Amino acid sequence: MGLKMNRKVLSLFVLLAITATAQCGNVYDITKYGAKSNNDANQALGQAWKAACASKVPSKVVVPKGTFRLSRAAFFGPCKAPIEFMIVGTLQAPQNPGGFKDGDGWVTFQDIDRLTLDGGGTFDGNGQNVWGKHCTRLNYCSKLPINLRFNFIKNSVIKSVTSLNSKQFHIMVLGGVNLSFRNLKIIAPEDSYNTDGIHIGRSTNISITDSYIQTGDDCISVGDGTKNLTVKGVTCGPGHGISIGSLGKYRNEAPVQGITVRDCTFKNTQNGVRIKTWPNANEGSASDLRFENLYMQNVGSPVLIDQEYCPWNQCNTQNPSKVKLSKISFKNIWGTSSTPLAVNLICSRGYPCQNVEVGNIDLKYKGKDGPAHSVCKNVNVKVTGKMNPSPCKFKA
Ligand SMILES: *[C@@H]1O[C@H](CO)[C@@H](O)[C@H](O)[C@H]1NC(C)=O
Ligand SMILES: *[C@@H]1O[C@H](CO)[C@@H](O)[C@H](O)[C@H]1NC(C)=O
Ligand SMILES: *[C@@H]1O[C@H](CO)[C@@H](O)[C@H](O)[C@H]1NC(C)=O
């Protein structure tokens, strides 16, 4: 009996000790490192991160209330213990985007296991003066920085922060494993160029949930090598909608596999859900793609497969896309389309889409060139439940 009690007391003590360590883990407030609101925080942030990352107990970097200027930052791991980056105030980028190379992040997190980014604060990319000014049509403003880059991050949570007015993509994820993005706000105006909300590439076991994404380009875009991504409870718009691809532009692209987009709302977006691949280009594949329970409000192309994706006629559409698309379903999709072509499934002549299912669609178009209709090419669709617009004559 006595022994049992002792054990219980002991394990309670151990539990309390662990909890206490986690809760009171070292806190590294950037103002303790000399950062002041309305001043430059580069050095203070760097020092706070370095100290926190070296901590053997869970630690926390804190950006408190206030607006701190930051020209750029890279937070590298591996760290010795789980680490939290809590941003309560605002980190603000300079207006001038100089000094960045293609694909650089303004703020980059890299090689970290068990990162938590949270705090309710804002990463302000300050992009208002650069959109459309630093790009040619073919060079996509690639030297403009991406607001937040997550490179090779594992087992981490990114929640309750805002990405504002990014100069280029807001958030880019590369080589991630087991990441949860939730309660995010991503905001830039409709006419901001190339400001994709979240781009995921070469990553596995990722979820994006309960977030608002209003921007000038894709709400979420899924690049090659993405496996097991769930998008749920996201509201998109304005912007270009949720898109898989574009695929096939580059050589040796890895397959896209297991993407679910459900319970999302699209408001005034150019597209709803879209799969896009380049004609006359490289091999690739995307399979096991599910789109369900989606509400469309005044959306340009609510349901779209485009295997002839060729913006600005950069490619030869004579040769078909070599990206194989299979096991795709669009179910329970309703609301209004802003163009009469509500369901548009253009598959590749060389590799017709396999195993495509469409069910319970109810999309209305009110303009004078209506009613809504559907088009399909090189695809044999299985239709279940109600279909409005009525299914086109599906051709294999
Ligand atoms: C995934 O990441 C979360 C958050 O850090 C963690 O709690 C969970 O254990 C991880 N899952 C695996 C399989 O490692
Ligand atoms: C993804 O999650 C599944 C199920 O939890 C797990 O078996 C798999 O190993 C994970 N993938 C990676 C790359 O960690
Ligand atoms: C997919 O990823 C989620 C984490 O986002 C994980 O819980 C689930 O087990 C994974 N499923 C598979 C089939 O790997």
From TrEMBL:
<dbReference type="GO" id="GO:0071555">
    <property type="term" value="P:cell wall organization"/>
</dbReference>
<dbReference type="Pfam" id="PF00295">
    <property type="entry name" value="Glyco_hydro_28"/>
</dbReference>
<dbReference type="GO" id="GO:0005975">
    <property type="term" value="P:carbohydrate metabolic process"/>
</dbReference>
<dbReference type="GO" id="GO:0004650">
    <property type="term" value="F:polygalacturonase activity"/>
</dbReference>
<feature type="signal peptide">
    <location>
        <begin position="1"/>
        <end position="24"/>
    </location>
</feature>
<dbReference type="InterPro" id="IPR000743">
    <property type="entry name" value="Glyco_hydro_28"/>
</dbReference>
<feature type="active site">
    <location>
        <position position="240"/>
    </location>
</feature>
<dbReference type="InterPro" id="IPR011050">
    <property type="entry name" value="Pectin_lyase_fold/virulence"/>
</dbReference>
<keyword id="KW-0134">Cell wall</keyword>
<keyword id="KW-0378">Hydrolase</keyword>
<keyword id="KW-0964">Secreted</keyword>
<keyword id="KW-0326">Glycosidase</keyword>
<keyword id="KW-0961">Cell wall biogenesis/degradation</keyword>
<dbReference type="InterPro" id="IPR006626">
    <property type="entry name" value="PbH1"/>
</dbReference>
<protein>
    <recommendedName>
        <fullName>Exopolygalacturonase</fullName>
    </recommendedName>
</protein>
<dbReference type="InterPro" id="IPR012334">
    <property type="entry name" value="Pectin_lyas_fold"/>
</dbReference>
<comment type="similarity">
    <text>Belongs to the glycosyl hydrolase 28 family.</text>
</comment>
<keyword id="KW-0732">Signal</keyword>
